[in-house]
From TrEMBL:
<feature type="domain" description="GP-PDE">
    <location>
        <begin position="39"/>
        <end position="308"/>
    </location>
</feature>
<dbReference type="GO" id="GO:0008081">
    <property type="term" value="F:phosphoric diester hydrolase activity"/>
</dbReference>
<keyword id="KW-1133">Transmembrane helix</keyword>
<feature type="transmembrane region" description="Helical">
    <location>
        <begin position="204"/>
        <end position="221"/>
    </location>
</feature>
<dbReference type="InterPro" id="IPR030395">
    <property type="entry name" value="GP_PDE_dom"/>
</dbReference>
<protein>
    <submittedName>
        <fullName>Lysophospholipase D GDPD3</fullName>
    </submittedName>
</protein>
<keyword id="KW-0472">Membrane</keyword>
<keyword id="KW-0443">Lipid metabolism</keyword>
<dbReference type="Pfam" id="PF03009">
    <property type="entry name" value="GDPD"/>
</dbReference>
<keyword id="KW-0812">Transmembrane</keyword>
<dbReference type="InterPro" id="IPR017946">
    <property type="entry name" value="PLC-like_Pdiesterase_TIM-brl"/>
</dbReference>
<keyword id="KW-0378">Hydrolase</keyword>
<feature type="transmembrane region" description="Helical">
    <location>
        <begin position="6"/>
        <end position="23"/>
    </location>
</feature>
<dbReference type="InterPro" id="IPR052271">
    <property type="entry name" value="GDPD-Related"/>
</dbReference>
<feature type="region of interest" description="Disordered">
    <location>
        <begin position="313"/>
        <end position="334"/>
    </location>
</feature>
<comment type="similarity">
    <text>Belongs to the glycerophosphoryl diester phosphodiesterase family.</text>
</comment>
<dbReference type="GO" id="GO:0005789">
    <property type="term" value="C:endoplasmic reticulum membrane"/>
</dbReference>
Length: 334
């Protein structure tokens, strides 16, 4: 009865050691991806806490705060214009119960004068710009800025139009295809395979399964970006519509399973950037960086900028202090 153990234990031990070694050294099996941009500061809907979301004014404000990536969402009007809007139905944003796909661009209503921040209930933004812009306007205004374009609806014509705009403005390498839905992402990849892509919800679950079974170091990954929510913001600044997602035990379990520095480091060693969303408090900024995330997605670009300046200044001060200690130990104090 014990004889099989003499074979099973060494095999499992060898597998575990090999998996661990390759997890730390993924370059042995995988060529490192090389995105032409690195994003630390990411503006969610252009910074929906400081200006009305997804407006040119919001994007301008994000740029003035040295954002590294603009995050936005797209839909298509009845007359074929690709517009920047999070919702397909405009009731929340404008007060008018209309679907973007059912009206022309000229018929689009203005945003409300004051709009509640989705990921910070009880907080509102306003601005002088209340117009829903076209995606082409954003590309024209910010030709060199990396942009994360989320496609929410499985609409082949919308995907084609977005792809055509990306190609026209020669920005395939600095525009990310984003969607949580596999069918939508498949359409995006087929239409423009040169654009980097994020993990969909299903692919994210597979990623975690591969990580915890030790298979991740052996499996190639097509994605270049992991965009995920930080579970600890649930029931504080993020209230999922699914009541089950708000269960305290499930939130705790998600946090323990998802916020793994070892996982983030492995992905980064493979050239895959990790972004956490949507973080609107300094304690959340701090935790994201402590967990090893590359980028922080926020509704408050100016607040994140201020925090990162202090954080990076503190990092430099500590580095210089450590260098001074090292010099003193070697008798090289200046």
């Amino acid at each position: 009865m014990l004889l099989p153990l003499y074979y099973v234990i060494p095999v499992l031990g060898g597998y575990a050691l090999t998996s661990y070694y390759l997890l730390r050294n993924p370059h042995i099996l995988h060529k490192k991806k090389k995105l032409p941009f690195y994003c630390r500061h990411i503006s969610h809907r252009g910074g929906a806490g400081e200006r009305i979301e997804n407006t040119l004014e919001a994007f301008d404000n994000a740029m003035s705060n040295h954002t590294d990536l603009l995050e936005l969402d797209c839909h298509m009007t009845k007359d074929g214009k690709v517009v920047v809007s999070h919702d397909l139905n405009l009731l929340r944003q404008t007060g008018h119960d209309l679907n973007i796909c059912d009206i022309t661009y000229e018929e689009l209503p203005l945003y409300r004068e004051s709009l509640e921040v989705t990921f910070f209930p009880g907080h509102y933004s306003s601005g002088s710009d209340r117009r829903i812009p076209q995606l082409e306007e954003v590309f024209q205004r910010f030709p060199h800025m990396p942009i994360n374009v989320e496609i929410k609806e499985e609409t082949p014509e919308l995907v084609k139009q977005v792809s055509d705009l990306v190609k026209r403005y020669q920005r395939s390498e600095r525009t990310i295809w984003a969607s949580v839905k596999d069918p939508v992402m498949k359409l995006c990849q087929e239409e423009n395979p040169n654009m980097p892509i994020m993990f969909t919800a299903r692919r994210g679950l597979i990623l975690l399964l591969l990580y915890y079974t030790g298979l991740l170091p052996f499996v190639p990954l097509k994605e270049s970006v992991l965009e995920m929510y930080m579970p600890s913001i649930i029931n504080r600044t993020y209230f999922p519509s699914n009541q089950l997602m708000r269960n305290r035990f499930l939130v705790f379990l998600q946090d323990k399973l998802m916020m793994r520095k070892g996982l983030f480091q492995h992905l980064q060693a493979r050239g895959i950037q990790v972004y956490l969303w949507v973080l609107n408090q300094e304690s959340d900024y701090q935790r994201a960086l402590e967990c090893g995330a590359d980028g922080i997605m926020t509704d408050y670009p100016s607040e994140l900028r201020s925090y990162l300046q202090r954080y990076e200044g503190g990092q430099r001060t500590r580095s210089e202090a450590q260098g001074s200690v090292t010099d003193n130990r070697h008798g090289n104090s200046y």
